[in-house]
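Our consortium's second objective concerns turning raw sequence data into structural hypotheses that experimental partners can test. To show how far this objective has progressed, the report includes one record in full. It was chosen at random from the queue rather than selected for favorable results. The single chain below, 116 residues long, was entered without modification.
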Amino acid sequence: MIHRGETVEKAVRESGYSITKLAKRMGKSRRHIYNVFENPQVPIETVLEIGRIIHYDFSEILPQGGFYISPDSHNISSDNKGAYGPNEQSVEYWKNKYLILLEKYNAVLEKMGEER
């Protein structure tokens, strides 16, 4: 069974996101990123930060019971109900919002390309 750090490493490598860019976005060194990959107990906050950067949902590896990811604040908060991860409606909402924004961005890029 692979540990949390190995799961993060696999996701980062499959995303094609460079280790150097990831380290810069996090304000850390490349060595720090490699240490994350080797750590079986990577802090959840670090996992979520990496997930946001590479656009990957790590909800499968989050511990069940006691953690909930708030879609508004992108923070983990304690929850006595034992739920974890955002509910399906929130996931769809943010996914659709991202796709709309991406389409607008692509339209702007196309317009800029036509003006040249």
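The partners drew two points from this record. The two ends are 53 Å apart (CA to CA). Residues 87-116 form one domain. Both points have been shared with the crystallography group to help prioritize constructs.
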